[in-house]
Write a structure and sequence with these properties.
Blueprint (H helix, E strand, L loop, with lengths): L3 H77 L2 H11 L7 E3 L1 H7 L8 E5 L2 E7 L5 E7 L5 H15 L8 E5 L6 E5 L6 H6 L9 H20 L5 E2 L8 E3 L5 E3 L6 E2 L7 E2 L11 H6 L1 E2 L1 H17 L15 H10 L3 H4 L2 H4 L4 H14 L10 H17 L8 H8 L20 H13 L3
Helix pairs in contact: 2-4, 6-8, 6-13, 8-12, 12-13, 13-15
Keywords: ATP-binding, Kinase, Membrane, Nucleotide-binding, Receptor, Serine/threonine-protein kinase, Signal, Transferase, Transmembrane, Transmembrane helix
InterPro entries: Kinase-like_dom_sf, Prot_kinase_dom, Ser-Thr/Tyr_kinase_cat_dom, Ser/Thr_kinase_AS, WAK-like
Pfam families: PK_Tyr_Ser-Thr
C-alpha cells in the first residue's frame, strides 16, 4: 500500500515534467515566429530602402530639372527685358560714384519679405511700389509694374537708360533693376515723405506745406526739368510732369520721378511726332491735338503744377462746377475777371508776400499759353523762380497779404512781359550777382 506522501510527490513530479514540456514547445513556437518576423522585416526593409532611394533620386532629379527650367525662364526674361542692351547702357552711363546694379529676383524677394503687403508704399494704375531693405541696411523703393502690354517693357528699358544718364539732386536716383521676372522691377533711392500731391490734397497724410516750402519745391522742380532739357547730352522730355511725380525726401527736398513715358529728342530735331501720353489736367493741349512733342509740353505741365501750388486745388476735379473742373482754365478765367484772391489757397494767404505771389502767377500764366512757341523755356522759368526765391531769402520786409491791400493788386492782370536777362518781375539789390548764382546752379546739376 502506497503512502499518501509518495503519491503526492509522484503527482508533483509528473506536473513539473508536463509543465517543462509545455514551456519548451511554447519557446520553440515563439522562436519560430520570431525568425519569420525577422526574415519578413529584413525583406521589407530591403524593399523600403530601394523605394526610398528611388524616391530620393526622383525628387533630386525633379528639383534639378525645375531649377534648370527656372534658370532658363530667368534667362528668357533677362533677354526679353533687354538685359544685354541695358548692361551695355548701364556700363556706359553709370557715374563713378556708384554703378547701377542688376539685382536678382531672390535679392528683391528677401528685401521685401517676398513682396509682403505690409511693405507696400503705394499702389496705382501702373503698379505697386514696395519698401525694401537691402543686406547693407539701405532702404530702397522697388517699383513692380502691372502686366498689361508689350509697351510696358519698352517703357521700362527707356526709364533705366534715361536714369543712368541723369545725375541731379532733384531727380530720383536709380539704384538698379531686376530682369529675371516677367515684368521687370526698378530699384530707386527711398524718398520717405511721399508726393507733393498727397500733401496738397490728402489731409490724412498732409505735412504743412508753407508758402516758403512751396516756392522751394517749384524752384527745385523747375531746376530739374531745365537740367533735363538742356544739360544732358540730348534733351530729355519728361512728358508726365505732375505733383504726384514730385517726391519729397526727409528734408522736404523735391525729387522728380517716373521717367517711363519720357523721350530723348535727337540733337538735330526740336520736336517728335509721337503717341500722346500724359495725365489729363496736365496735358499740353497743343501736343494733345497735334501729337508734336517738344520741350514746351513739359513747360505747360509745370505751369499747372505752379497753379496747383498757388491754389491747393487738383488739376482736374469733377467735384467742382463744370466751368472750374480744369484748373488751368479756371485759373485763366479767374485772372481775367480779377478773382485770383478767391482761388488762392487759404493756408498760404497769411504768410505769402504779395509781390512774390504775383511774380509766380505771372510765370504760371506764361507757361500755360496755348501756343508752345509763346511759352518760356524751362531754363528761363527756373531762373525766374530762383530769383524770386533768393530775394525772398534776403528780404524779410514781407508784405502780408491782407484782404484790404490784396484785392487791388490781384484784380490787375499780370504783366505780359517775360524777361530773363533783366528778371523784370523781381526787385533785387544786385541783379547781376543773383543771375550769376542762378546760372551756376542750373548748369552744374546741383
Amino acid at each position: 500500500m502506497t503512502s499518501p506522501l509518495f503519491e503526492s510527490f509522484h503527482y508533483t513530479k509528473i506536473t513539473i515534467v508536463l509543465s517543462f514540456v509545455c514551456i519548451r514547445r511554447l519557446l520553440l513556437n515563439v522562436s519560430s515566429a520570431t525568425e519569420k518576423v525577422i526574415v519578413y522585416t529584413s525583406r521589407c526593409s530591403g524593399v523600403s530602402g530601394s523605394i526610398l532611394t528611388l524616391m530620393g533620386g526622383t525628387l533630386c532629379m525633379y528639383c534639378t530639372l525645375k531649377k534648370r527650367k527656372l534658370n532658363k525662364l530667368k534667362e528668357h526674361f533677362f533677354q526679353l527685358n533687354g538685359g544685354l542692351l541695358l548692361q551695355q547702357h548701364i556700363g556706359r552711363y553709370s557715374g563713378s560714384n556708384e554703378l547701377t546694379k542688376i539685382f536678382t529676383e531672390k535679392e528683391l524677394k528677401e528685401a521685401t519679405n517676398n513682396f509682403n503687403e505690409e511693405m507696400v508704399l503705394g499702389k496705382g494704375g501702373e503698379g505697386t511700389v514696395y519698401k525694401g531693405i537691402l543686406p547693407d541696411n539701405r532702404i530702397v523703393a522697388i517699383k513692380r509694374s502691372r502686366v498689361s502690354n508689350p509697351n510696358q517693357t519698352e517703357h521700362f528699358i527707356n526709364e533705366v537708360i534715361l536714369l543712368c544718364q541723369i545725375n541731379h539732386r532733384n531727380v530720383v536716383k536709380l539704384l538698379g533693376c531686376c530682369l529675371e521676372t516677367k515684368v521687370p522691377l526698378l530699384v530707386y533711392e527711398f524718398v520717405p515723405n511721399g508726393t507733393v500731391y498727397e500733401h496738397l490734397h490728402d489731409q490724412s497724410k498732409s505735412l504743412r506745406l508753407t508758402w516758403k516750402r512751396r516756392l522751394q519745391i517749384a524752384v527745385e522742380t523747375a531746376g530739374a526739368l531745365a537740367y533735363l532739357h538742356s544739360a544732358t547730352h540730348a534733351p530729355i522730355i519728361h512728358r508726365d510732369v505732375k505733383t504726384s511725380n514730385i517726391l519729397l525726401d526727409h528734408n522736404l527736398t523735391a525729387k522728380v520721378s517716373d521717367f517711363g513715358a519720357s523721350k530723348i529728342i535727337p540733337l538735330d530735331r526740336t520736336q517728335l511726332t509721337t503717341l500722346v501720353l500724359g495725365t489729363l489736367g496736365y496735358l499740353d493741349p497743343e501736343y494733345f491735338h497735334s501729337s508734336q512733342l517738344t520741350e514746351k509740353s513739359d513747360v505747360y505741365s509745370f505751369g499747372v503744377v505752379l497753379v496747383e501750388l498757388l491754389t491747393g486745388k487738383k488739376a482736374l476735379s469733377f467735384e467742382r462746377p463744370e466751368a472750374h473742373r480744369n484748373l488751368a482754365i479756371h485759373f485763366h478765367s479767374s485772372m481775367k475777371e480779377g478773382r485770383l484772391l478767391e482761388i488762392f489757397d487759404d493756408r498760404i494767404i497769411d504768410e505769402a508776400n504779395v509781390e512774390q505771389l504775383m511774380d509766380v502767377v505771372n510765370i504760371a500764366s506764361h507757361c500755360l499759353r496755348l501756343k508752345g512757341e509763346e511759352r518760356p523755356t524751362m531754363r528761363e522759368v527756373a531762373m525766374q523762380l530762383e530769383g524770386i526765391n533768393i530775394v525772398e531769402k534776403h528780404q524779410w520786409e514781407n508784405v502780408n497779404l491782407s484782404l484790404e491791400n490784396a484785392e487791388s493788386i490781384l484784380k490787375a492782370t499780370p504783366s505780359s512781359s517775360f524777361s530773363v536777362d533783366g528778371v523784370n518781375n523781381i526787385s533785387m539789390h544786385s541783379g547781376s550777382d543773383v543771375l550769376n548764382q542762378i546760372s551756376f546752379s542750373l548748369t552744374r546739376g546741383r
